[in-house]
Amino acid sequence: MNIGRAVDAIRKKFGNGALILLYHRIAHLERDPQLLAVTPERFDEHLEILRRKANVMPLKELVQKRDSGLPPRSVAITIDDGYADNLLFAKPLLERHESPATVFVTSGFVGVDREFWWDELDRILLNHQDAGWNVASGNDDEPRHAEYRSLHATLRSSTEPQRLQALHDLQVRTNSGSSARATHRALTPDQLRELAEGGLVEVGAHTVTHPVLASLSPASQHQEIDTSKRKLEEWLGQTVHSFAYPYGGKRDYDKHSVEAVRNLGFSLACSNFRGMAWPNTNRLELPRALIRNWGGEEFERMLDAEFA
Length: 308
Ligand SMILES: [Zn+2]
Prior knowledge:
Layout (H helix, E strand, L loop, with lengths): L2 H9 L6 E6 L1 E2 L10 E2 L1 H14 L1 E2 L2 H10 L5 E8 L3 H12 L4 E5 L11 H9 L17 H14 L3 H15 L14 H8 L4 E5 L12 H19 L5 E3 L10 H9 L4 E3 L18 E2 L5 H12 L1
Parallel strand pairs: 1-5, 1-10, 2-3, 4-5, 5-6, 6-7, 8-9
Helix pairs in contact: 2-4, 5-6, 5-7, 9-10
The structure holds zinc ion.
């Protein structure tokens, strides 16, 4: 047992911690090299289990109640990036189970005929023979698997202009065009409004271009976060209170990112490292549990282990 888990175990004796789940896509994909998608059938199963075994509440409420005392097994659902499938497949299931969720939207991709850079790599480099391959599978049987891995690492740490140039070169050299696949589109402004309609789904900000914030100057970070907030507010006609750091690992953002989020008036912000939310957990660096395309049994096991 590591120190973090040992400390959590002690804390549990004094009160309830909460779990924030992190999803990305609810979809059937031909291939999923980054393991981002949960199928609608399995998401349905997860929500059914949550209804039986947890107290699902809006993220905002979970953070507010952190200090005054949470019910046991408190859970909030979050979905990152802003894919159209969040409206098409996730929302109907959230409605069926009356489960609130927060969707963090990358504003620069809304209504644009362009895929996220990691999907572009998938579209251009991989093909139908790669249905079973992903970055966790370890064996790169084909040269294109190693190429995908290597370019992925390069582009993740590139600046936005470098990344766009590299993708453009790749499109030209492989004659792949630049149009987004229907299955990999982000939300349009109309879909964004439809997603937020009814109040079950809250929309949060996730920057404009999905950069590694820590690699940017404090001023550029502020601008990425500020612009995404204002753009979403303009589309939605309501204030955006929540934020999620792109990639969200401890090295992907820094103190300037947290400062910008605080100065811009966000009431909470999510990271992407594992842990529970406790009364004294920083509301601007909330840990989350990354959820994969697990069957019901495995999902339930994870839930029981977190709350054990
Ligand atoms: Zn993201």
